[in-house]
Design brief:
Layout lengths: L5 H10 L18 E3 L8 E3 L5 H10 L1 H43 L10 H9 L9 H22 L6 E10 L4 E11 L5 E10 L5 H14 L7 E6 L3 H10 L2 E4 L1 H13 L2 H19 L1 H13 L17 H16 L15 H21 L9 H13 L4 H18 L2 H8 L8 H4 L4 H8 L4 H10 L10 H33 L7 H7 L7 H8 L7 H15 L8 H31 L10 H11 L21 H4 L8
Parallel strand pairs: 3-6, 6-7
Antiparallel strand pairs: 1-2, 3-4, 4-5
Helix pairs in contact: 2-3, 5-23, 6-7, 8-12, 8-14, 9-11, 10-11, 11-12, 12-13, 13-14, 15-17, 22-23
């Protein structure tokens, strides 16, 4: 081994030097056998030989006062050095904070980004010798993550058939951008539902051909074919409707978008608009005038009003009318005490009408909150509309009748989608309850369900195959043909008859997850669970795509990034969506873990739950005579979100 240099030895000696050398003079070179005490009137000769034990004992016993004083001075020096080190660390931390603030200021990043989960993970995982990557390296990392995401999804979706395509578009003409988000929902062999984000795809135009090519291209990247798509769920845009017609695929108008159209049509009424405009004006004014907003907020707190202040909402925001008017009604008493805001004050005698509008729209907004969740099922669409219509018709007023007309108009459109009724037939909460299918009958729905019995198609094709091996004799041939025809004619009907009998005697509770029910019935039915997996793979809305573009809007609106190519923007938005979904999945897992240790609590039934229970417990002949009991607002059971049979994954 190489020998240490003399400089290194000297530093080591100084670092570990004994305190006795504060009194004695340390001899250079070879240590002498004895040393003289340098303190006057002592001059005692002490044994040394390279060790300081005798010297230290002499100082502690013969010169204790001097020795203790030197020890105190040494402690004082340590304290001073420690304070200087802390001051230096504090100054370094303050300097780092200033640099971070400067970065936020110069890069136009919002201050809330300091709490961004990805940024916090970066700080926690950053090694000491970390080197900041350059712009090209960062772009490469984002592109790699986007490519890895596509490969992971391709593996997970391998073999997925009869899936539901959830899509929606975003356009910003001034930037020349037109995106479509693609999500896929399907049920696996364990009857777990998955809703997976695939990609964002740009389209050159809004034509049906361009949109169809973009969606097909995304599916091809992950090994799926448009021919395997069972249904398209999106808003009512004509290109998407034509896309479904071209491919012969079922089309479902997003339930939340449809309910929001009811509110939008109701908002066009002159009697509603004259209340909506002052509330909108107040929201816009508060967004621009912080002083008035602060004053109103202080007065509201003083009056124990905890409601949020009205905020300007985009026209595309679901239930914007109800949210704005409800905020105005809640804050009205505080608003009367702010002089500069009296311009937006509605006369007190007219507030009853505004409250009536809020109460009429409450069931629709509650249904939107219920159906926009990824845990919802397409089978919940019509029952919610029936419930909304029932609540509206129970109010005897001109506004209620106008709103009922808007609801009935959209209800007629929903009735034209036969798949909604077929999915209700396979949902034990609604199956064979006459009220839900009026003016149709469940016999009609059973006939419509035969379309999804895919095994019949295979049997028919085998029957028409001229190259198939012929039976050995006539008796075998006749037996096989009659048996095949009997199975095709009565197999599904027989299962439906047994299913109806099962529900009439032992209908599962409303809290039982629909997919979990069919998972438990695999051994009892051969056809119905397969059809249920296809139909119940569809959530009630395409809100996952809406949320994707809501998160992407901030990026798209940043003019500082106007030089980014479409591919780079696509990759960046894909990574952004993945990060958000990872965060949501983590929160969901935490909720699931916290719920495991809690005892089950039985809450008061909401209006729709009670309606479902009452309709399910009675025979179809007695349905019309039943009275519905009014109840509180609609709340969604969190158990539906946490159920392991309905899993949303990245």
């Amino acid at each position: 081994m190489p020998r240490k240099s003399s400089v290194a030895k000297t530093r080591a000696k100084r670092k570990n030097a004994s305190d006795v050398w504060l009194i004695f003079e340390q001899p250079p070179g070879k240590p002498p056998a004895r040393l003289l005490c340098p303190i006057p009137k002592c001059n005692m000769s002490l044994s040394y030989g390279g060790t300081t034990s005798a010297l230290k004992t002499h100082c502690e016993t013969k010169h204790a006062e001097i020795w203790n004083k030197l020890g105190e001075e040494k402690e004082e020096r340590k304290i001073i050095e420690h304070l200087q080190h802390e001051t230096s660390s504090s100054e370094n931390a303050a300097a780092a904070e200033r640099h971070l603030a400067n970065w936020f200021a110069t890069s136009l990043i919002p201050f809330r980004a300091v709490a961004n989960p990805s940024f916090l993970k970066f700080l926690q995982s950053k090694p000491i010798a970390f080197q900041v990557p350059g712009p090209a390296r960062l772009k490469h990392l984002i592109d790699v993550q986007a490519a890895e995401h596509m490969e992971k999804v391709k593996v997970k979706l391998n073999g997925a058939a009869n899936f539901t395509l959830l899509t929606d578009g975003y356009s910003k003409l001034r930037r020349g951008l037109h995106f479509y988000a693609v999500h896929v929902a399907y049920v696996d062999h364990r009857f777990h539902r998955h809703i997976k984000f695939i990609s964002l795809e740009t389209v050159d135009s809004g034509s049906t051909e361009a949109i169809g090519a973009a969606v097909t291209n995304v599916l091809e990247k992950i090994g799926l074919r448009m021919s395997d798509c069972s249904m398209i769920t999106a808003d009512g845009a004509s290109p998407l409707v034509k896309l479904a017609d071209v491919h012969g695929t079922d089309k479902h108008h997003c339930s939340c978008h449809m309910l929001n159209l009811i509110i939008a049509e109701f908002a066009k009424l002159a009697q509603v608009r004259k209340y909506y405009e002052p509330a909108q004006g107040l929201a816009t004014h508060l967004a621009k005038n912080r002083e008035h907003k602060r004053c109103l907020q202080q007065i509201a707190v003083g009056m124990n009003i905890t409601a949020a202040l009205p905020l300007p909402l985009p026209a595309t925001r679901w239930a914007a009318l109800h949210i704005t008017l409800k905020s105005y009604v809640d804050i009205y008493d505080a608003l009367k005490n702010v002089a500069p805001l009296k311009l937006f004050l509605i006369q007190s005698n007219k507030m009853d009408t505004m409250r009536e509008i809020v109460d009429l729209l409450e069931p629709i907004h509650d249904a939107i909150l219920l159906l926009e969740r990824d845990s919802s099922f397409i089978s919940e669409t019509i029952p919610n509309i029936v419930w909304i219509l029932h609540k509206t018709r129970s109010v005897d007023s001109g506004l209620a009748r106008q709103l009922a007309k808007c609801i009935e108009k959209r209800f007629e459109q929903a009735r034209s989608t036969k798949r909604l009724y077929c999915s209700m037939l396979l949902d034990h909460r609604y199956a064979y309850v006459a009220k839900w299918v009026e003016p149709y009958s469940w016999t009609d729905v059973e006939t419509w369900l035969e379309k999804y019995d895919r095994e019949d198609d295979g049997a028919a094709s085998d029957e028409g195959d001229e190259n198939a091996i012929q039976p050995e004799d006539f008796d075998t041939f006749a037996s096989q043909q009659s048996g095949a025809k009997m199975d095709r004619a009565h197999g599904l009907r027989a299962e439906l008859a047994r299913y109806k009998a099962h529900l009439s005697t032992n209908r599962p509770s409303r809290e039982t997850n629909v997919l979990r029910f069919w998972r438990s019935q695999i051994d009892n039915y051969s056809k119905l669970p397969v059809i249920a997996a296809e139909l119940l793979a569809s959530p009630a809305s395409s809100s996952c795509s809406e949320r994707t573009f809501s998160r992407c809007t901030d990026f798209i609106r940043q003019t500082k990034r106007n030089r980014a190519t479409l591919d780079t923007m696509n990759a960046t938005l894909t990574v952004t969506e993945n990060c958000k979904k990872e965060e949501n999945d983590a929160k969901t897992e935490e909720l699931m873990e916290s719920d495991e240790g809690e005892e089950e609590e039985f809450c008061e039934e909401d209006m729709l739950s009670r309606m479902v229970r009452m309709e399910s417990e009675n025979s179809p002949e007695d349905m019309a005579e039943e009275e519905l009991i009014p109840d509180a607002d609609l709340e969604h059971d969190s158990e539906d979100i946490m159920d392991d049979a309905d899993v949303q994954e990245e």
